[in-house]
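Regression test case RT-17, inverse folding.

Input:
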């Protein structure tokens, strides 16, 4: 089974603090990386965690506020300095392309790799080797998108006794069938469906970006195995959440409950809070399976229970 991990590179909102950098995180599965947002200084966190600059990589940007995107030119430049050659796909609101093209020209970035730009839109925006990337509009002060990274469906449970009854010898052919590929035995084709149970769903990871809670997002994040949601404020500052179009930790928990997610991670904390304990306490009163993100934290995303 493939290991799927999410590492937080920055968890602050708007401005960095001594303990928290600006928003960014990276999802890893068997050498494939999906980077979500790219706050200022992200390349330093990236290097310090040894994530590698020439791996299969996709970058998803939620919106064009500086704390979520200002680190992108530096990250691309660092990849170029490392002589990256693999193509890189960037998904973002359409306006980002003009800004990035201008920045690359003025700063002479001189990328050493092909950069493919995909404009974010509602629905499925990208097919990757291991994932589908889905997007939905968030409710923020400028155009903003939320994302779900949906792992591809897995083959069903393998039943050795069925394989033996069909005369399939243990070893290489069993491995083929377990991976969802047909096997040939004495001139006869054995299909995976003959020796496995029904296909099993892959894992779902959701990321809100900056947003107010909405019915559309509750539907979009339905049954995510892990949801990372904007939790900029406590209940005491709920008026600010409404004014600046962010969410409180309680609102994040209420949405997680409505969406039926398995686990909730709070992030994007206002610099006014030195500790996240109050935000976690308020969220857990609604949705107990809640934790607060911190810079450098790695979370393993488990498979859904079959």
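Golden output:
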């Amino acid at each position: 089974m493939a290991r799927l991990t999410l590492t937080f590179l920055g968890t602050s909102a708007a401005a960095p603090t001594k303990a928290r950098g600006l928003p960014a995180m990276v999802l890893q599965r068997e050498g494939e990386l999906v980077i979500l947002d790219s706050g200022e200084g992200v390349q330093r966190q990236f290097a310090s965690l040894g994530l590698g600059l020439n791996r299969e990589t996709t970058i998803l940007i939620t919106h064009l506020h500086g704390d979520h995107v200002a680190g992108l030119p530096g990250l691309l430049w660092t990849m170029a300095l490392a002589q990256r050659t693999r193509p890189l796909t960037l998904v973002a609101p359409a306006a980002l392309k003009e800004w990035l093209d201008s920045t690359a020209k003025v700063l002479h970035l001189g990328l050493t790799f092909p950069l493919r730009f995909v404009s974010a839109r509602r629905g499925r925006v990208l097919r990757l080797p291991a994932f589908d990337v889905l997007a939905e509009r968030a409710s923020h002060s400028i155009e903003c998108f939320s994302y779900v990274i949906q792992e591809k469906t897995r083959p069903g449970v393998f039943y050795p006794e069925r394989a033996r009854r069909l005369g399939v010898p243990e070893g290489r052919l069993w491995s083929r069938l377990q991976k969802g590929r047909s096997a040939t035995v004495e001139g006869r084709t054995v299909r995976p469906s003959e020796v496995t149970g029904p296909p099993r769903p892959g894992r779902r990871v959701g990321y809100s970006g900056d947003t107010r809670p909405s019915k559309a997002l509750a539907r979009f994040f339905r049954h995510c195995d892990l949801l990372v949601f904007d939790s900029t404020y406590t209940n005491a500052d709920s008026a600010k959440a409404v004014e600046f179009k962010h969410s409180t930790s309680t609102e994040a928990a209420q949405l997680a409950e409505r969406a039926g997610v398995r686990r909730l991670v709070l992030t994007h904390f206002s610099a006014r809070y030195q500790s996240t304990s109050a935000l976690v306490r308020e969220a857990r009163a609604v949705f107990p399976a809640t934790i607060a993100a911190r810079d450098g934290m790695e979370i393993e995303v488990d498979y859904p229970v079959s």
